[in-house]
Amino acid sequence: MSTSPRSTTIRDRDRKAIARTKPPCGICEGELDYSLPYLDPLSYEVDHIIPLARGGADELANKQASHRACNRAKWHRLPEDDQPRAFVTDRTW
User: Fold this and answer.
1) Residue 46 CB coordination number (10 Å)
2) Can you give the pLDDT at residue 85?
3) Which pTM value belongs to this model?
4) Rounded to whole angstroms, how far apart are CA atoms 3 and 53?
5) Cα–Cα distance for residue pair 47/58, rounded to 1 Å
6) Residue 4 above 90 pLDDT?
7) Three-state SS annotation for the chain
8) Phi/psi at 65 (5° precision)
9) Other CB atoms closer than 10 Å to residue 27's CB: what's the count?
10) Contact assessment for residue 50 and residue 56, using Cβ atoms and an 8 Å cutoff
């Protein structure tokens, strides 16, 4: 995990670039209301597709729009972490 500080200038620029196109939430694919106050669970927030804690880059290509609640629930998981698990057993019935 990188401990170097992130640039607020780049963060704000990327946030505005994503909001300009008004995409849906990249996690749940629901519609985003870009006018809600930032503490509202359905407000717009930028999500790192591959979290910084898991080696993702702090670049526009690794960012997507999300609901605040979806981003908080996702935390540091990767997209493939949300796939259903396949259980394997040697049992026969």
Assistant:
1) 17
2) 61
3) 0.77
4) 10
5) 10
6) no
7) CCCCCCCHHHHHHHHHHHHHHCCCCCCCCCCCCCCCCCCCCCCEEEEECCCHHHCCCCCHHHEEEEEHHHHHHHCCCCHHHHCCCCCCCCCCC
8) -75, 150
9) 19
10) yes
